[in-house]
Amino acid sequence: MRRYIAMPLLMLVASLMSSASTLAADDWSFIAGTYALDPTDCKLAGSAAPFSKELADGLSQEVLTREGITSPREVHCKFRSAEKSDSGWKVQADCEELGEASPAEIAVTTASDGTVSVVSEDVYGPDALKFTLCKK
User: Fold this and answer.
1) DSSP H or E run through 19
2) Rounded CA gap, 39 and 90, in Å?
3) Residue 116: which H helix or E strand, with range?
4) How confident is the model at residue 113 (pLDDT cuts 50, 70, 90)?
5) CA-CA-CA-CA torsion sign (20, 25, 26, 32)
6) Which residues, 6 or more positions from 83, have their beta carbon under 8 angstroms from its beta carbon?
7) pLDDT (0 to 100) of residue 124
8) Contact status, residue 37 vs residue 130, Cβ threshold 8 Å
9) For labelling alongside 126, which of 2, 5, 31, 87 has CA 20 to 30 A away?
10) What is the bridge-based pairing of β-strands 75-85 and 68-70?
11) DSSP assignment of 44-97
C-alpha cells in the first residue's frame, strides 16, 4: 500500500520541481514596481488590483506591473514569461482585446532614466509605449 502512495507522490514532486526550474529562468529584472504612461494613474494603480474593473475603469492610460499591462481600453496583456534578449527582453503574454484572447510577444527595453518601453505592433501599434516608474 505504501508503495502505491509513494510513487504518485514522487511523480508529483518531480513535476513541481521541473516547473519551478522553468519559472526560475524567467527574467523580470526590468520591472522595479508599478509603471504608468500618465503619472496621475499611479495612485490608483498602487491601490487597485491589476486587471480589476476598478483599475481599468479609473485609468486614463495603460499601466504596467509584474502581472502585465492593464488598459482603460479593451486591451489587457497578462505576462506569462520573460527572457533577456540582445536588445532588452522578450515577454510572452496572453492579450485580450474586446473579449478576444490571443498570445503575443512583447519587446521590452529600459532606458538609463528608468523608463520602460514596450513594443507590440499587433497589440499596441507600431509606436512604443513609454512607461515611467510610479513613486511609492
Assistant:
1) helix 2-24
2) 25
3) strand 116-120
4) very high
5) positive
6) 25, 26, 27, 89, 90
7) 86
8) yes
9) 31
10) antiparallel
11) HHHHSPTT-HHHHHH-SS-EEETTEEE-SSSEEEEEEEEEEETTEEEEEEEEEE
**How far apart, in Å, do the first and last CA atoms of the chain sit?**
55
CA 19 vs CA 22, 25, 26, 73, 106: distances in Å: 5, 10, 12, 34, 23
Q: What is the mean pLDDT of the chain?
A: 84
The answer to whether 104 touches 84, Cβ cutoff 8 Å, is no
Cell of 66: 509584474
Note the pLDDT tens digit of each residue in 50-91: 999 999 999 999 999 999 999 998 889 999 999 999 999 999
Domain boundaries along the sequence of the chain? 27-133
* Conformation bin of residue 88: beta by default, left when phi > 0, alpha when psi is -120 to 50: left
